[in-house]
Structure formats: C-alpha cells, structure tokens
Amino acid sequence: xxxxxxxxxxxxxxxxxxxxxxxxxxxxxxxxxxxxxxxxxxxxxxxxxxxxxxxxxxxxxxxxxxxxxxxxxxxxxxxxxxxxxxxxxxxxxxxxxxxxxxxxxxxxxxxxxxxxxxxxxxxxxxxxxxxxxxxxxxxxxxxxxxxxxxxxxxxxxxxxxxxxxxxxxxxxxxxxxxxxxxxxxxxxxxxxxxxxxxxxxxxxxxxxxxxxxxxxxxxxxxxxxxxxxxxxxxxxxxxxxxxxxxxxxxxxxxxxx
Length: 257
Prior knowledge:
24% of the residues lie in helices and 28% in strands. The protein has 257 residues and is α+β, with helices and mostly antiparallel strands. The strands form four sheets. A seven-stranded mixed sheet has the order 1-2-7-8-9-5-4. Strands 3-6-10-11 form a four-stranded antiparallel sheet. Strands 12-13 form a two-stranded antiparallel sheet. Strand 10 (181-189) and strand 11 (198-202) form a beta hairpin.
C-alpha cells in the first residue's frame, strides 16, 4: 500500500493498493472531466440523460481492443478534455462534464461504493496498443489476446497518456467503472460568436462532494438558462439515489452519536 498520489486527477493522501505483478491499482478520490461539442439536440435533456449518454457501445478504431464493451472517455482536467475534442475539430460551444467516484463522497448516492480498480496502460504495453489502434493499424491476435488478459482483471478503467495535451492523462471507463461515477457539475459555455453565454448545473459540491440529487433533473435552455424537469423526481434513478442518500445520512449520524 502507498499513500503517494498515483494519478494526476487523484487527491493527495489517499491509500493506493497495487497488484504485485501487474500495474493494477485500487484507490479512490478522483475528479474526471469530459468535453463534448454542444448541439441544439441537448436542449431540454436532463443532466441525468446527458451524463448517462457518455457510456456507449465501443465501435470504430478501438472495437478490436474492446469487443462487446461499452466505454466512456474521460480526462484528468478540463484542459485535457477540451484539447481532446479540439484535436477532432470541435468548435467553441462546449459542454463539460465534471464527475467523481461516488464512494468518495461523505454521502454516497450509488449502490456500488467500492474503490476504483485502475489499469495503468502506460506500464504494461496497453498504451502502445491504443496508439496502434488510434492510427488504424491492424492488431495481431497475440495483441488482442494480451488485452483480453488485462480485461480479465475486471478493471473499472484504463489510463493512458493524452496526445492532445502534453502531460495529460486520459481514462477509458468500462461499464462497471462508469457505474461508480456521479456527476459533480455540468458546465455549458458558448463561444463569443454565439453570444458567450455560460452556466452550470451543480449536483455535488464542497470538498465532501455533498450531493444535490434534484439537480440531475435540471436541463439547459437557449442562452444557457437552466430549468427543472419535475418528472425526474418521479424516476427510478432519483428514488434510488434518494434512498441511498438517506441511508448515508443515517450512517453518518450513527457514527457521530
């Protein structure tokens, strides 16, 4: 076990466990960022819908590495996340997701509150395979089998270096790991050409990641205004989060009594 920070986006002073023979880490307390180019189809969609839309079936260049997997791509900072979409030609109207591992919160709202299991792809050759796939190079069966052996460790995510921002770290989350994430903020910023309006939806705040679960039902309107979809308060997701949050409050109260 180590108390040193293993990754850029991790907070200091967290216990980190590492497997002896593989660069697999078990730890917690992270901030993750993802940027997407905003389009008008996002208007009226709740923060919950937009956040959950970040987990998608793996197609295209990484499909040979991660067959039949759902993936979600995140970065260590807003700067790295923005550089990644700019590399692919995104404009200046940007939606930024700021997420955290829910179990980190003093008051979790998800059922799975276990620490993250992270594979450092830079220390086991996975980075090279990602680079190869990213450049549309054919992977050998041996390489595909090797990646399958890493996935057999059932990691939550895979870390690799960003090529869009020097020193940046990127994370590929698998479905199991994505289900450990909660949304902290959803930020919308338009470029000057489109008015320069900006706003945010806050669903967790303070150093304790205190949750405001009703905010998952908020959505953006034109000119970056924020409104609330009251129907979200009747959804299964909200009811479950509310129940788990209530249990979290109870556990804290029992601890301090």
